[in-house]
Design brief:
Elements (H helix, E strand, L loop, with lengths): L7 E8 L2 H13 L5 E14 L2 E15 L9 E4 L5 H10 L19
Antiparallel strand pairs: 1-3, 1-4, 2-3
Amino acid sequence: MADLEVQYLQVQTTTDSRAEAMELSRAAVEARLAACAQVAGPVASMYWWNGALERTEEWLVLLKLPADRYDEPEIVALPFVAGSTAYLTWLREETRPAQDALGSPARRTTVTS
């Protein structure tokens, strides 16, 4: 596969409660930082912390967003190397500010399967 410029990401992080995961998801989509957020869980996590093996239940948050919106180093980002044109257009449109620079409402598009 040829080198592709990464334009879209799936970003994932975890929280220790469903309520926090839902609030993070709502805030990211409402602020148009992500076009879509998904919450899954609880998931069992196993990791080393302060020299001890820890096992906890966490909630997984997946955010889909343009690569230029990613700036938090404590979350993992996976690049979209391919996607349907309609889906990627929807993702870009849904992460634009609610109003463009001229103050008019942003154009909305709907993707149907």
